[in-house]
Amino acid sequence: MITLYDFGNSVCCQKVRVTLCEKGLEWQAIKVDLFRSEQYDPSYLKLNPKGVVPTLVHDGKPVIESTVICEYIDETFPEPRLVPADPWLRSQMRLWSKMVDEGLFEGITEISFSAMFRERMRNMPQEMREIRFRNIGDPRRRDRFKSTYEMGVHSPYVLYAIAAYERAFKLLEETPAESGPWLVGARPTLADINLMPLLARLDYLGLLDLWIKERPFVSGWWALAREWPSFRRGLSNLISEAEFAEMRTHGPNIRDEMATLLAEIREGRCGQPS
User: Fold this and answer.
1) What is the pTM of this model?
2) Please, what is the angle between helix 241-267 and helix 156-173, to 10°?
3) Distant-in-sequence, close-in-space partners of 146: CB < 8 Å, separation ≥ 6
4) Per CATH, which fold does 87-267 belong to?
5) Which CATH superfamily is domain 2-76 in?
6) Nearest to 6, CA basis, from 28, 36, 37, 35
7) Residue ranges of the domains in the chain?
8) What's the rounded Cα separation, in Å, for the pair 28 and 175?
9) Three-class secondary structure of residue 53 per DSSP
């Protein structure tokens, strides 16, 4: 039996769901409402001491960390294979996963926070807001969230996010054409699945084209990913209309400032006196 402790519009949960869908697996979903701080419930913390989603429980054993979960699913249910058999291609897949885990995930969190979750926290009573910050537990994460809450797009962490995506899309555009149409071969792998939720979030916020409108390989890859049945079943079909509406409403509010910062990064002017 597979149980997934899940939150619908979490990018980490989305990549696990896409992986489960591609494997043709069924699972029991248990919602962990991040905005009600259910991830800090003592019973959930026994499964996931970090207090984050997702958590996969398979045959009574919990598996945490979305990248680890996806590899666990692939090893446990080997068909269709989502990790390349070739060692070099497997290393390239893991480089993309590493890039997501070491910069792009934090980046999408800060961009999303500055666009819409910041507004939610502004509308909270101060006491509840302080509880949310205290519950984070990780001082580095708390500092990031506080900075983005107070400064919005002008937080240095949002700037780091914009730069991280610029580096990633530049590298992706330089991916050799013969390796495709997917990132590391003729079939999708966990490299593609790790990236899909991040591009989806930027797209739904109305921001993705700032990076990719003049990058034909990335644009083509994203068009392919959007139509992949497992992407639809595990990600886009499971986002509620209310969540789509929230992203469509708040993303455009930061678009001009994001475009300005991206232009400054590309011109090497970011951080210099105007």
Assistant:
1) 0.92
2) 80
3) 133
4) Glutathione S-transferase Yfyf (Class Pi); Chain A, domain 2 (1.20.1050)
5) Glutaredoxin (3.40.30.10)
6) 28
7) 2-76, 87-267
8) 37
9) coil
